[in-house]
């Protein structure tokens, strides 16, 4: 009886923590967004600057996911399959964006491509500005989202082993054919999970993007930056409407990731 009471107490504690820390914030965001009705929230999302922020967020997210998915797969496959001098250092560098503040990453890009940086002045003279423009936002997003595909795929690739790949190579398949037709299908669930994590992180990134964007409404403001601009301008309903939309997008990504992982577990049990 005591053990059962203890389990119920721990379950109640967990539900209370989840409710306060996870469920309550989005509920309050949606409540604030709809505090004056649906029409003001909808009008705020239809504002030209808001639409520009949504569009820029989607474009940057799509590019970051595509680029980091490709290089993440390459990095995971190389690190899981081969031993080479400096391999441990490469793994540490891959995980570096998870360890340092995103603001540090933004400052590094500012040092390299800013007006006073190593290449920034030359690029601006040639008509290709990087900082305070979409290319700088993309670089900052690439930095903070790089580890996710690599870190989700490496354990799966180690678990798969090399037997199937070696058999395919023995039959004459090249590296790219093996990777596309043997390795990736076997690590499909890990790849999808990493891509979805990258997507969610890219959509919500604030720190690094804030450093390199310049906060120019309608030009270099992503959704998180636009939320800050609206809130600082005392446009509370508009700020929470944008925050609610961003939360819905993140929830959708998390829900899809959960479905993918559940399907992968079900397929594993069936096998």
From TrEMBL:
Main location: membrane
InterPro entries the record matches: MetI-like, MetI-like_sf, Sulph_transpt2
PROSITE patterns xrefs: ABC_TM1
Keywords from the UniProt entry: Membrane, Sulfate transport, Transmembrane, Transmembrane helix, Transport
Superkingdom of source: Bacteria
Pfam families in alphabetical order: BPD_transp_1 (PF00528)
Keyword flag ATP-binding: no
Span of domain ABC transmembrane type-1: 54-257
UniProt topology in membrane: Multi-pass membrane protein
Residue intervals passing through the bilayer: 12-34, 54-77, 89-112, 132-150, 237-260
Subcellular location as annotated: Cell membrane
Assembly and interaction partners: The complex is composed of two ATP-binding proteins (CysA), two transmembrane proteins (CysT and CysW) and a solute-binding protein (CysP).
Described purpose of this protein according to its UniProt entry: Part of the ABC transporter complex CysAWTP (TC 3.A.1.6.1) involved in sulfate/thiosulfate import. Probably responsible for the translocation of the substrate across the membrane.
Protein name: Sulfate ABC transporter permease subunit
Organism for this UniProt entry: Gluconacetobacter entanii
